[in-house]
Amino acid sequence: MTEPHPLLKVKDVTKSYFEDGKEFKILDLIRFELAEQDFVCVVGPSGSGKSTLLRILVGLEKPTSGEVLFEGQPIRADNPQVAMVFQSFALFPWLTVTQNVELGLEAQNVPLPARQARARKFIDAVGLTGFENAFPRELSGGMKQRVGIARALAIEPLLLCMDEPFSSLDPLTAQNLRDEILQLWSDPQLPPKAVLMVTHSIEEAVYLADRVIVLSSRPGRMVAELVIDLPRPRNRKEPEFYGWVDEIYSLIV
Amino acid sequence: MSNSGDDVGPPKRVTDFHSISKASVGQILGLVEAVDEAGGTADVATISSEVDMDIDRLGPILAAAEFLGLLEVEDGDVRMTDLSRKLLSASVRERKSIVRGIIDDLPVFRRVTEMARVAGRPLDRREIVDALAASVGSHQAEEVFKALVYWGRYVELVRYDSESELLSLRTPSK
Amino acid sequence: MRGRRRALRFVAGILVFAGIVAAIASPQAALKALQLPLFALFSTSRMVAAYLIGLVFAIAYGHTAATNRRAALIMLPILDVLQSIPILAFFPAALLFFVVTFQGSAIGIEFAVVFLIFTSMAWNMAFGVYESLTTIPQDLEAAGSSFGLTGWLRFRLLEFPAAIPKLVYNSILSWTNGWFFLVASEVFQVGSSKFARPGLGAFIADAGRNGDVASIAVGLGVLAAVVLALDFFVWRPLSVWSERFRMDTASGRELAKVPRYEPFRWMPRFPAVRRTIIARAHPATQAYHRASVRLDRAYASHPNVVRDVRVVDLGLFVIVLLLVVTTGLIGLGQLFLRPLPPEAVGLPWAALLSFSRLLLSYGIALGWTIPVAVVLGESERVSRYLTPALEIFASLPATALLPVILGFSLAVVGSTGGAAQLAAILIGLFSMQWYLLFNLVAGVRSIPQDLREAARSFGLRGRPYWRRLLLPAMTPSLLTGSITAWGAGWNALIVSEYIEYAQRPYTVTGLGSLINQAVLVTGDTEVLLLTILTMIVVVLAMNKLLWRPLLKRAAIRYRLEV
Questions:
Q1: Which chains touch A (3 or more CB pairs under 8 A)?
Q2: pLDDT score of C144 more than 80
Q3: Is the CB of A142 less than 8 angstroms away from the CB of B26?
Q4: How far is CA A215 from CA A44, A222, A253, C509, in A?
Q5: Domains and CATH numbers, chain C
C-alpha cells in the first residue's frame, strides 16, 4: 500500500489578537496533517478558537505565526481546490438554488452549459432536484444547508471544509443530514478527497470522523489527536461509541 | 390509476395533508433514523428525550411520519414499518421515488395535478388556493398550498416559480 | 392590481381637479397650464439625471469607504458634514461657477440645477451603501471570498444586491429632498441677473411672483400628481421588490465586522469644557451654573428634577455656544478678512432669530404630529382614510408652497412685516412636519402588540398610558424624525426668509435673508461667506451637542426588543 497523498499541512499555527498593546492568544501551536481519504473533525469547547482555526486553514485569515500549506503551497482564500460550508449556510438570498450552486463555477468562468450541467448534477446528488428555481427563503433549514453542500461540491474540491454545518438545524434534520453527508462521502465518484469539519459536538465528531483533533480552550491548544476506528455505519447506542465520547469529554473537561 | 378522486377521499384526508405541512423531509427522515437507532421501536417519551425535542415540536413530525406510513404509533409507542425500513436502506434518489409513490396518491395532490393536466397550462397560485379553499376552507388553503408546493417539488412532480407564482407539472428525472 | 388602479384614479383625480379649478378661475391660466405636461417632463428629467449621478456617486463613494479603511477615515466625516450642512446656502456659488464655466449658456444653468439636486440626494444614499456593505454577514462575505468572487462578479452578485434595501429606502428620502431643491433652484437670481429654466418649479415661482392664484393652484396640482405618481408606480413597487434582498436574520452569526458608523463620533466630546464654559463665560451663566450645582445637590434624591435642570443646562449651553462661536467667528474674520463688514455684527442676532423661528415651527409641528401619529398608528381605520390625504400634502415640497403660504399669511396678518414672519414660520413648519409625522407613525406601529396588551391588562389609560408606553416608545423615532426635520428646516431658511411675491420682496431678519440679501442685492461675498459659516457651525454644534447625545441615550433606554 502506498502512503496516502498529503493535502494539507498545518505548521505551528498561532493566532493572537492585540488590544491596547496586550496580546490575547486564541490559538497556540496547532500542528497536524490531512491526507486524501481523511475525514477529520476538530472538536473543542467554545473559546477554543476552532472557527478561527478553520478560517485560517482556508485562507480567510492570516495566522500570527506558523503557516498552512495546501499541496505544498501557502493556502489562499480563493483556492478552487478548497470549498467551504458554513454554519449560517451563507446562501445569497437574491439567487435561486441553481444560481447559488453555480456561484463558484461562475467565478471560475466555467462556460454556461457546463456550469448548468455541473450544478444539476450536484443539486441532484444532495436530493434537491425539484427546487432548482426556489429562493433560499422558500427552503427549510435542512434544504438550505443542502444547497450549501451542493455549492461546495460543485467546484469539485479536493478538500471540503465545514464550519459547524449542522448546528443551526433542529436535531432531527441535523441527524438526517449527517447520514446523507456520509452517503455522499462514501461515493468515490463524488468529490471531495478529504473533509475537515469543525464542531462543538463530541458525539457528532465521533459519529462522523476517522480522526478527531481535540482542542482546549483559551487559548486553543491541541490536547489530543485520536483515530476513531469504529466500523460504519456507527450506532450511537453502542458502548464502544460511548467509550470514545467519554474519552474526549474527559480530555476537554 | 383511479380517477380524480376528490369525492372518494373522506375529509379527514385533507386535514392529514395539512398535517404534513408542518414537517420537512429531513425532519421525518431524521425521526425514522432515531427510531431505527433505538432498535426499531421505542416509546414517544424516550424518542423525545433522545432527539432533544419536546413533544410540541416532535408531535407534528410524528403525525406526518405516521400519515406517510413510515411510523406506527400505538399507546405511546413508536414502531418502524416495512416502508420505513426500505426507505432507510435506500439512496437519496430512491428515497425520493418512494415518497413520490405516497404523495402522488394523496387526494388533494391528485386534484391539483389533475387540474393542471386538464388546463394544459401552468396554474396561477390564486386559482389553486381558491380551489383548495372550496374543500379545506380559506383558512387552511394557503398552508395546504405551501405544503403542496414543498412536497410536490421534493418528489419532482411539480414545478413552481415563486416570481410568477405559476405551478406546472414535471416528469421526475430518471 | 387593485391598489394600483386605485392609485391611478387618485392621481388622475388630482389632475382633473386642478384643471377644473384653473379653467373656472381664469381661462388664460388654463391655456398656460397646457404647457405644464412639458414642464413636468423637464423637471422630472432633471430629477432623474441628478438621481442617476447621485446613485453612481453613492455606490462609488460608499464602496470605497467600506472597502478601504484608511480612506474611510477621511471620507466618512466629509460625508457627515455634507449631509448636515444646509446645501442650499452654497447654491449661488455653485450657480456662478457653472454659469461662468459655460459662459452664461442655458446648459450651464441646467448643470447648476442638476448639481444642486444631486447634492440633496447623494449623501444619505452613500451612507446607505456604506452601511449595507459593512453589515454583510461575515459568513456570506467569507462564502464570496472562498468561492472566488472578486471584482465585478463580487459587486454584481454580492455587494450590489446587499446594498439594495438601504439604497431603495434612502432613494425615497433623496427623492423627497430632490423635489424641495428642484423647486427652489429652477428660478434663481444672482445680483441683477435672473436665471430660470422651464419647469414646474419655475412655473410655480413665476405664478407666485405675479400673484396669479389660479396658476399656482394648477402648478401645485400637477406637481402633486407627478410626485404621487412616481411614488405609487416607481418607489412603492421598488421598495416591495427590495425586500427580497434583505438578509435572512434568522440564521446564525450576523455580526458586523466594522461597527456601524456613528455620525459625529470623530468629533471630540467635551462635557468638562462645556461645564467650564458655562461656569466662566459670563456673570449670568456663572450664577446659573452655581444655582444648578446647588439644585443638583439639593435634589440629589430626585433624579427627575436634576434631569430637567440638565436639559435647561444643555439648552442654555447651546445658546451660549451659538453666541460665543459667532462672535468668535467675527473676531476671526476681523483678523483675517480685513475690516469686517458692518452686517457681520448682526450675525449672532440673525442666527438667534432664525433659530427661534425654527424652534417655533418645530414646536408647532410636534404639537400636532404627536397626537395625530398616535391616532394613525393605533387605528387602522383612521389611517386608511387619513393617510392618503396627508400623503398628498406631504408630496408638495415646502418650496413649492411659498406663494400659497405667503398669500395666506398676508390674508391673516395685516402688516407686511408680520406676514413675512408668519410665512417664515409656516414654511419652516411645512418643511419639518412630515418627517416628524411619518417617523412617529412608524414609531407607534413598532410597539409590540404584547406591550400594548400588557398596558391594557394593567389598566393603563389616558395620561399614564401616554407617559409609560406611547411617549417612551416613540422617543427613538421622534429623535430620528427631529434630526431630519431640522436638516430640512435649516435648508428652508434660505427660501423662507426672503420671498418675492406679487412683485415685491417680503423679508425677515435672519441668516437666510442675510444670504439672500448678499446674493441678490449687495453682492457682498464676505457677508455671504460669514453667514454660511455661522450657519454651518450652528448646525454642526446642534447635531453634535444635542441630537447625538440624545439619540445615544434613547437608543439604550427606549429600544423595543422584539
A1: B, C
A2: yes
A3: yes
A4: 5, 5, 11, 73
A5: 2-245 (1.10.3720.10), 270-340 (no CATH), 345-557 (1.10.3720.10)
